[in-house]
Amino acid sequence: MMGWPKQIRPRRDDSHASWACRAYGVLLLAASLLTGTASSAVSAADVSSKPSGVEEPAPDPQNDLAEEKAEPVYVWSAARNDSRVTLRGAVPSEADRQTVLGMVKAHFPDLSVEERVKVVEGGLPREQWLGAVSFSLQQLSHLRKGKVRLSNAKLLVAGEAASADEYAEVKKALAGPLPDGLILKGEEIRPPIADPFVFTADLGPNALTLAGSVPSEGAHKDVRDLSRQLFERPGLDDRLEVASGAPKGWDEAVAASLRALSRLETGKIALSGIAVSIEGVAPDQGTAVAVSYQLRRDLPKMFSTSESIKWKEARAPHDMAVNVIPRIKAFARTKAKWRNQTLPPLTPVTNQR
Q1: Beta-strand runs (E) in the chain
Q2: For residues 342 and 313, is the Cβ–Cβ distance under 8 A?
Q3: pLDDT < 70: residue spans in the chain
Q4: Where are the domains of the chain?
Q5: Dihedral sign, CA of 240, 242, 245, 248?
Q6: Over the stretch 67-118, which tens digit does the pLDDT of each residue have?
Q7: Can you give the pLDDT at residue 189?
Q8: Where does 231-284 have alpha helices with state H?
């Protein structure tokens, strides 16, 4: 007797196995969902356990920027104008707040003080922080208007100096040495504004005197170097000061004016804004005319010029008349006659200047 084929003979058993497999699959899915929920709950618990407001920067193996960004920033600043000093940021304690306020009143006795500071623990060690604040206020006192800002141990200074001397003082102080631990993050200090912007050069018999304003220390050096090159006078009296407000093309105009002045025996040039004047004495008329032409040609187009240049007259004919005419008159009075038809010997003529 032929039996059932193997693949269909155990039908009832296959049906039972199939149901069991489906049930097992449902159990696996449920377990997976429960595991995911638990994992999510653990993750949520981990997040909620972190203090609020704290961010952990991602590590950067390339450099230490991540560590720097993670460092808390302790900021204090002071700004001033013509009438008021404004304080902002954080101070370590109430006692330190009073100490800083005393410093401010000492540096700015005639200005009102507006405080917008809060007592916040942290920052630099107390003595170091107070030293940095004192140094910052000293620099602010040199400015007509400006601001100083301490960010941890980094200092930023910006503003306009009250005078040329104050500009030199603050630049010298920021060049170092600085208080212990203080780092100059940046400085944007402008020299005082000169209006009008005046420059003069006065050429005397023994010295050249420079006075007025220059737009920068670099321009100051350029003017001195050019003066040494053009003039052979033994003395150079430098009274120049750094200031803001120079017109465009100022350096080119000063160079052209100094070159023109160098061709005179004595004289003076003056630049006031974009107006240039030159006066003096040239060795002869041709030089006087050439100097006027040269200056007008070399000045930038926006500059105007006025000239008052004299020159020395040729004195030889006058000296000859002084020596010869009296002798002729004397000869005529004596009614003397020429011997050998020649005039008496004359004293050699000298060209006296």
Answers
A1: 75-80, 84-91, 112-119, 143-151, 154-161, 183-190, 198-203, 207-214, 235-242, 266-272, 275-282, 304-311
A2: no
A3: 1-72, 314-353
A4: 71-190, 198-311, 315-353
A5: positive
A6: 444 456 899 999 999 999 999 999 999 999 999 999 999 999 999 999 999 9
A7: 94
A8: 250-261
Partnered with residue 209 across adjacent β-strands are 202, 237
φ/ψ of 215, rounded to 5, equals -75, -15
Q: Give 215's Cβ-side CA count (13 Å radius).
A: 12
pLDDT at 318: 53
Query: Which pLDDT score is estimated for 121?
Result: 87
> What is the pLDDT at residue 54?
31
| Phi/psi at 195 (5° precision) | -140, 105
Domains 71-190 and 198-311 share a fold: yes
Ramachandran angles phi, psi of 71, nearest 5°: -70, 130
Its sign, for the CA torsion 196, 199, 203, 207, is positive
User: What sign does the dihedral 293-297-301-302 (CA atoms) show?
Assistant: negative
- CA distance linking residue 18 with residue 41, whole number of Å: 35
Please report the pLDDT score of residue 154 as a whole number: 95
The angle formed by the CA atoms of residues 200, 202 and 208, to the nearest 5 degrees, is: 115
Q: From the CB of residue 132, how many other CB atoms can be counted at a distance below 10 Å?
A: 25
Q: pTM for the whole thing?
A: 0.60
- State which fold the 198-311 domain adopts: hypothetical protein tt1634 (3.40.1520)
**pLDDT given at position 226:** 96
Residues 6+ apart with CB under 8 A from 222: 251
CATH class, domain 71-190, is alpha beta
